[in-house]
Amino acid sequence: MNLPRAQKWLPPRYQDIKARDVKLLAADDGSSLVRVIAGSVAGYDGPGVTYTPINYLHATVAPGARLALPWPRDFNALVYVLSGRGTAGVEEVGLDEGQLAVFAGSHRKGDGDGLVVRAADAQPQASANGWEILILGGLPIREPVARYGPFVMNTREEIVQAFEDFQAGRMGTVPAEQVPHRSDADESLT
């Protein structure tokens, strides 16, 4: 996760979030299930703890259903399609599996307080139960971005330092008791 320059060198940390830990929400008509993994939606908080304000959601939208989510006005947003197909935004831009939509000012419904997505009426067989999407966003950091591999920093020099720290073992480790075992793999969301 990208952090502001002043927080780039904070000690790494791992959070073991399982399916049973997330906050589950349903659309008013029951057509969508939203898992709040981190952040807050409609006053419901996910278990993920972040250094900067973000929202991280996993939604399952029934075929043909529309999902309108409240979204902080000052947050950016994106939708990534895990499986199935649908549309994003009031313009109803088509999205298929593996595609990403980045929301700008025009994504807002009405007075600028939400995000709108819609699952296609017909879904591929693998998505017969619904369109599976990740919805992420947060306060824009508005700093230069240098990225390579898993690292996101502000400069090339910081990327080099991050690789050196990783190779020297200074990035920390995932505690052995929290490393997902094969039996836990289906429960892990992040």
Model description:
By secondary structure, this protein is mostly beta strands. A six-stranded antiparallel beta sheet has the order 1-2-5-12-7-10, with no helix packed on it. Strand 8 and strand 9 form a beta hairpin. The chain is globular, with a radius of gyration of 18 Å. The C terminus is likely disordered.
Number of β-strand runs: 14
Radius of gyration: 18 Å
Continuous helix count: 1
Low-confidence stretches: 106-111, 184-190
Strands in their spatial order, largest beta sheet: 1-2-5-12-7-10
Question: Mean of the pLDDT scores?
Answer: 87
Note the overall shape. Answer: globular
**Major sheet, described briefly?**
6 strands, antiparallel
Order of helices and strands: EEEEEEEEEEEEEEH
Rounded to the nearest angstrom, the distance between the terminal CA atoms is 12 Å
Name the structural class. Answer: mainly beta
Proportion of residues in helical segments: under 10%
Strand content: 35-45%
